[in-house]
Amino acid sequence: MATGHSVRYPAADLSRYAAQLFAAAGCDGDKPNTIAAALVEADLLGHTTHGLQLAPTYLGELESGGMTPHGEPDVVADRGAAVTWDGRRLPGVWLTARAVDLAVDRAATYGVVTVVIRQSHHIGCLAAFLQRATDRGLMITIASSDPAVASVAPFGGRKAVFTPNPFAVGIPTDGDPILIDISASITTNGMAGRLRREGKRFPGPWALDATGQPTDDPTELFADPPGTLLPTGGADHGHKGYGLALMVEALTQGLTGFGRAEAPRRWGASVFVQVIDPAVFGGADAFRRETGWLAATCRATPPVPGVDAVRLPGERGLANKRRALAVGVDLYPGILEALAPFAKKYGVQELAPQSEG
Amino acid sequence: MATGHSVRYPAADLSRYAAQLFAAAGCDGDKPNTIAAALVEADLLGHTTHGLQLAPTYLGELESGGMTPHGEPDVVADRGAAVTWDGRRLPGVWLTARAVDLAVDRAATYGVVTVVIRQSHHIGCLAAFLQRATDRGLMITIASSDPAVASVAPFGGRKAVFTPNPFAVGIPTDGDPILIDISASITTNGMAGRLRREGKRFPGPWALDATGQPTDDPTELFADPPGTLLPTGGADHGHKGYGLALMVEALTQGLTGFGRAEAPRRWGASVFVQVIDPAVFGGADAFRRETGWLAATCRATPPVPGVDAVRLPGERGLANKRRALAVGVDLYPGILEALAPFAKKYGVQELAPQSEG
Description:
The structure is a homodimer. Chain A is an alpha+beta fold. The first copy, chain A, has a domain at 70-291: Ribosomal Protein S8, Chain: A, domain 1. Chain A has helices spanning 11-24, 31-44, 55-64, 92-110, 131-134, 189-197, 234-237, 239-256, 284-299, 315-327, 335-346, and strands at residues 74-78, 82-86, 112-120, 139-145, 166-171, 178-183, 207-208, 214-215, 228-229, 269-276. In chain A, the strands form two sheets. Chain A has a seven-stranded mixed beta sheet, with helices on both faces. The first copy, chain A, has a three-stranded antiparallel beta sheet with strand order 8-7-9, with no helix packed on it. In chain A, a hairpin with a 6-residue loop joins strand 5 and strand 6. In chain A, helix 1 (11-24) runs antiparallel to helix 2. The radius of gyration of chain A is 20 Å and the shape is globular. The interface between A and B is large, with 90 and 89 residues.
């Protein structure tokens, strides 16, 4: 009998279980299935801090009224290629999937379609949405920020102004897509919290304490006064991450017109989605030729000492996904335990593990 | 009498002088004035490696036939909001200014306008184009890569695949715009060359030698076999810069359909320009409210020890520009000396310095 880390679950079972929980929590229409599938997709890709680990928190938000369970976003503006929604604090994972699908549907008509969402709830793992576009030969960018939260300081400062401001880019090639998922800070709030709980340190001086001194101690983020996450580039060249942070703030909070200036207090997100159809520019075949050449060349690059091979962003995640779809998802410990109280309360049957094949 | 670094030149005189040289070298129409103004704009902003220092090289390219002096780009595709040009190796500085102006003109109609250019010549300083959009309340992104050159390795590799792949973002606010000008590598080819000529080192381990060991020695880039520039994030978290490099390659070479797969040998650029009108999304006033709040908050952030004040990207450049417009441009040494042979050859009167006021 399998125990601990060797307990695996079929992805379809995880999706069904999570969908049942979100439906029982009041989510209408296709929201339960869409949310569940996107969270499991994050686990499949190995983004374990942004997969089903978020489900208990989302369910808690649905219970407290922090997340709106039903209905549609309000359309603030729709100019065909430029769309603005008010998300009404609907589940951000569902809103983002809808925004991507809308942009994908319109991409062939306009070439570039941009959808921005204000007052979305948390959108989860950005990388989990990329293949909705790349599977159709489209390039996609997703960016997100939370105007109610701050953990990253402007470069040269020691008080937080930004969230890590993730952005993800999906690039189709002649083979697997390139799936980039980065952020304007070296690490994330989720990772800082996890390392703190586990009594671990950052691998480098990825944060500042409240006095502005670099530190590898994640507990500094939770001190009073709190430290800050360093922007990408760190103390050495953090002006780069600072620039990225400002770019994402403008794309998300600026374009939606809802951000820190409103001083929101509730956990949420402002979101930017842009889908580009290469066929409308230099041509779909030419695009794949360039990106395919690039992917092959990167993989063939001789590695530095200590690295076995150069990989593309997303390569490890896609390999993880194929393996997990074949042998089951190796969930990060504690997740099903956190979901169990909701299952009991809602009368949903708990999930039985599948032992390793 | 002023000497050395205290020799200053009125910006208008520098522009006029450079425009005369480009006209004498065969550039037609508005090209001489546009190229000269954009190069001087880079010097005004303090981007001294990408200002008039490039003029002698551009003039040399015009003489050798590497840069096309006259005519228009070929329109490969024009879908209103999505435009693709073949630049026919015309001056990239002029092509980019034209692309920005076209996107600015159409932004109110489409919300987002994207222009990509293949077979452009070198486009100079990306930041020099941003205010063409931000002065009208528009957000702008410019990205560029040179498919004929490689100096940056994929993260984990030790052979160059990318150029530094700069991208710049202009964000209007309720005051000065935010002018972001960053790249996918920690430093640039231009800076490596300058430090090498001056016998200096990088401030940190910003490069790898050919065996893959981090180094601060810019001469490693010019060794045989050559070292590589590290992506943004360095040896610590260079996967971020690697992601940015791939994103810029896809936006520039992928969308234009002209890139490394064609193995071009001549110095040039593939270019991406995108202009966004906030008025078509959540509203121009709302955008300025958010970005204005952000700018004020960043400036008011308490600084880390050793930093006098937190600045916004572009703040120092705009201050430099105001000062230089008032008292003259303090040209980096050697530039006028490099232009003198062209002036003699073309019968253009050389520029007399203005002593400091």
